[in-house]
Amino acid sequence: METAIEVRDLVVRRGRRPVLHGITCAVPRGSVTGLLGPSGSGKTTLLRALVGVQVVAGGTVTVLGEPAGAAELRHRVGYLTQSPSVYPDLTVRENARYFARLHGLGAAEADRAVRDVGLADAAGQLVGTLSGGQRSRASLACALVGRPELLILDEPTVGQDPVLRAELWEMFRAMAANGRTLLVSSHVMDEAARCDRLLLIREGRLIADDTLAAVRATAGTDDLEAAFLHLIRANETAPADVEESVR
């Protein structure tokens, strides 16, 4: 299995408190991998480590064959943060075209990204006037505009209505079918069913790194929420001294 991301014994601390406890996992190329877990489980901290903006206390993170955060990855990795990362005093179109220029691309690529996330009708609106879900999609357009090999998306469907959520997941699946790799975090367990592979995290510990079918088989149920609860109980013997508000 060719991997896009390899994490070995990753440890992150806040002061003296451990946030991530020696996490080891891999993300295959050309797949949609879901990073699932409740709010406060350490998902965002792990994603920050993958893009090289998180101080780590130990372990290694390799992304597309390079150390996380390496300059060579700048145009190969797209990162969508949980909070919108666009300029509120620019329109959706202006934001996308600005980010396109950073990649050496033109207006056509920017406009395509805006259409892909379903914001063509709002392209001329100031981002500051958009709803929360629309701002998230504007940020997603900016992450997509450079056609990165790897997309790291932190809760991209939060605040989206069911129709838009389904459309975004169709787009994610199409990207993977064309060879791109996506790591998508979520605390909504039904979104796990849309992924090829799952990373399940709780209190800074990885409790599963497997295919969807294997997670269901291990738990003995097709209900993903029940499977997650089963895996939690199976790991209850692990120390539980992690700060509950980990992000």
Describe the protein:
Pfam families: ABC_tran. This protein is α/β, with parallel strands linked by helices. The chain has a single domain (3-76, 148-246), classed as Rossmann fold (3-Layer(aba) Sandwich). The chain is 31% helix and 26% strand. The strands form 2 sheets. It has a 6-stranded mixed sheet with strand order 6-7-8-3-9-10, with helices on both faces. The chain is globular, with a radius of gyration of 18 Å.
Concise structural overview:
It comes from Plantactinospora sonchi. By secondary structure, the chain is of the alpha/beta class. It contains seven helices and ten strands.
Strand content: 25-35%
| Total DSSP helices | 7
Helix content: 25-40%
Count of spatially separate domains: 1
Principal-axes shape call: globular
Taking the sheet with the most strands, its summary is: 6 strands, mixed
Low-pLDDT regions: 238-247
What is the averaged pLDDT score?
Answer: 90
GO molecular function, one term: ATP binding
Protein name: ABC transporter ATP-binding protein
Domain ABC transporter: 5-228
Pfam family, one: ABC_tran
